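Cross-posting from the chemistry board since nobody answered there.

I work mostly on the small-molecule side, so proteins are not my area. We synthesized manganese (II) ion and want a rough idea of how it might sit in this target. Sequence and SMILES are below. Is it possible to get a predicted 3D structure of the two together?
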Amino acid sequence: MPTDFRSFLRLLEDKNDLVHVTREVSPDFEVAAGMRRTSDLKGPALWFDHVTGSGIPAVGAVYGVRRRAIWGFDTTDAEYPDKFMNGLRNPIAPQVVEDGPCKEVVLLGDDADFGLLPICSHNRLDNGRFITMGLTIAAHPEFGTNVSISRMQIHDGKHAGILSVPPQHLGVYFQEFEARGESLPMAVALGVDPYTTMASGFKGNIYLDEYTIAGGWMGRPLDVVKCETSDVLVPAESEIVIEGELVAGERRLEGPFGEVPGYYSPAGQRPVFRLKAITHRQNPVYLAGLTGRPQTDNHVIRDLTYEPIIRDRIRQLCPGVRDVYAIEGSAGKHIAVSIKPTFASQARDVMMAALTTERIRPKLVVVVEDDIDVRDPAQLQWAMTFRVQADRDVLIIPGMVGQALDPSTPKPGVGTVMAIDATRPYGEPFWEVTDVPGAESFEIPLPARS
Ligand SMILES: Cc1cc2nc3c(=O)[nH]c(=O)nc-3n(C[C@H](O)[C@H](O)[C@H](O)COP(=O)(O)O)c2cc1C
Ligand SMILES: [Mn+2]
């Protein structure tokens, strides 16, 4: 079980799924080009030994394919959703420790500068360099610690912009602090264990301390340590921690930035983070990550954190759920569900429940019967083609909650959703599915060696 970033990287090396780029690469698009290419090829994660301008190496596309995130979770695709839900149901509070590896080097004052880190530019029209895989951590007197992932645009050595608006919890925290005229202390952790990373991408309720689910998944408390310049708690084994605050009353232009729907999200006047300190391990590694058109780190983390939640919600209506799968490329917005229906129109209950999952809000839900493997595109298409009559089986509902970053919506945050019932009419006769006797047990000979 990888319990910190380094042990995760070692595990990936053991699996031949992490390779070194030994030549010098530029932080301007070249690190991103490597991540884009390997993500497109479903290739290995990349360790960039030498990024121009920084003494710190970068690792990228670690979450660029699903298999690596599943390994990081020390599980299999089949067992993943239950492991996810078990951790969520059995949270373990973090343990505050006095010191940790992330404090091996402490840089304060003029020594602390974004310029030390190999922060990259990614998509062509991005407005500069962005931290893309930073865990953005803040604390609130009532809601407690919150850990999320939010992009940050580097303005200069001491300042960065951030995109996190309510209902994102960090956005809620800052809105409240700022209304009182207070800046919000915040830290950014880079290079942490896979559990804490996945917990940060998970959309829980606002009272949830994401460290407690990471603990639930690991089966032991996560070690956290206090920042040098605030009371914010950060994972003690982080490779790099950036400390500072979101400044009350300050806005600067942030964006455009190539976002997870695969389009550039527009620029806007957004909050500003002021850097106060950087702490890191000896010989730290910076975590880079790609977003943009699919498939990227952002998509994989989204798909994997959405599936178990929708599955759990649907199961309460329909115990016979075989699988819930976020279709690759949809950024978690197209969900395929296989069920064993037990009464007429049950598929419709399932569709409505999935479509209204808080904060996740799929845009397209397809429900099939449990003879279909929703992870096999041919099987899914077969059901959608020969079990569906569009006038009867397709629901289109306008005016639902949409995604602010979705360029097809009529106005930000409002959109049309669709559901397709690709189950056969319950309890009614339907033509027989073809099958070949003996196919399952037929042994294919190994190809002859030439
Ligand atoms: C790689 C990656 C980048 C992300 N970038 C942002 C971002 O810039 N802004 C944002 O609001 N959410 C972003 N998210 C999604 C949030 O991290 C996610 O919705 C998280 O659950 C929010 O935390 P919260 O539930 O505590 O509000 C990103 C997710 C991933 C996986
Ligand atoms: Mn949260």
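Reply from a structural biologist on the board:
Welcome over. Reading the output above for you: The CA atoms of residues 229 and 324 lie 43 Å apart. The longest strand covers residues 240-254. Happy to explain the token format if needed.
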